[in-house]
Amino acid sequence: PTVTPTATPTTPPTATPTATPTTASPSATPTTAAPTPAGSAPPGVNWLGISSDSTGANLVAIIQSASTDGNVYYSSNFGAGWDVGSSSAALSGLVGVASDSTGQFVVSANASCVFRSVDYGSSWGVILAIAGDFNAVVSDGTGQYIDATTDAGFYSSSDSGGTWSLVSALASGSTVLEALACDGSGQHVVICPMFG
């Protein structure tokens, strides 16, 4: 009798999906992981400002309550939990906050200083100090271009706050530059005055 060979079934190979590479600006790539907040939502009475990364996960807020005067809180889980940033007394009285697209580089300002954080709002350092009141601060998507308004005029930096230029000076008692916004590149800036 003739024996018919039986084919041994084979398992087809499984294709391994290939990730599509994406290109990102080196300055916009976080070098450290965002801290994980453990606290609950901040006990704020007044929210004076809030910034977000491009995903909405990393947030930095300026909170005013009965026990704080414009202090920093940060969250890395879409606001579900919050931690207090640096407790330095110099950070009180903050009036605005802005971040880059990753949320790692954050800027804020108070009566006499512009502050910068490179760790999602956890700790801060002074990058500009003047004799005048800051009213607003803004950053582009990479954290390279930073602008700030004061009662004396409009200041701008193109190197992440390393150096600053007084772009436009205001005479004492003139219009106050109150609000500020810029596009993702930092090249187009909108300033809103407040008339007394």
Number of helices: 0
- Order of H and E elements: EEEEEEEEEEEEEE
Main beta sheet: strand number and arrangement? Answer: 4 strands, antiparallel
Radius of gyration from the alpha-carbon trace, in angstroms: 24 Å
Strand order of the largest sheet: 1-2-3-4
Could you list the spans in which at least 5 consecutive residues all have pLDDT below 50? 11-31
Helix fraction, binned, reads under 10%
- β-strand percent reads 35-45%
Categorize the overall geometry.
globular
Through-space gap between termini: 109 Å
Kindly report the average pLDDT value: 73
Oligomer: single chain
- The count of β-strands is 14
> What structural class results from the helix and strand content?
mainly beta
Description:
- The chain is mainly β and 196 residues long.
- 0% of the residues lie in helices and 38% in strands.
- It contains no helices and 14 strands.
- It has strands spanning 46-52, 59-64, 69-75, 83-84, 96-99, 106-109, 113-117, 125-129, 134-139, 146-150, 153-157, 165-169, 176-182, 189-194.
- It has a 4-stranded antiparallel sheet, with no helix packed on it. It has a 4-stranded antiparallel sheet with strand order 5-6-7-8, with no helix packed on it. Strands 9-10-11-12 form a 4-stranded antiparallel sheet, with no helix packed on it.
- A hairpin with a 6-residue loop joins strand 9 and strand 10 (146-150).
- The chain starts with 45 loop residues before the first strand and ends with a strand.
Helices and strands in order, then pairings?
Blueprint lengths: L45 E7 L6 E6 L4 E7 L7 E2 L11 E4 L6 E4 L3 E5 L7 E5 L4 E6 L6 E5 L2 E5 L7 E5 L6 E7 L6 E6 L2
Antiparallel strand pairs: 1-2, 2-3, 3-4, 5-6, 6-7, 7-8, 9-10, 10-11, 11-12, 13-14
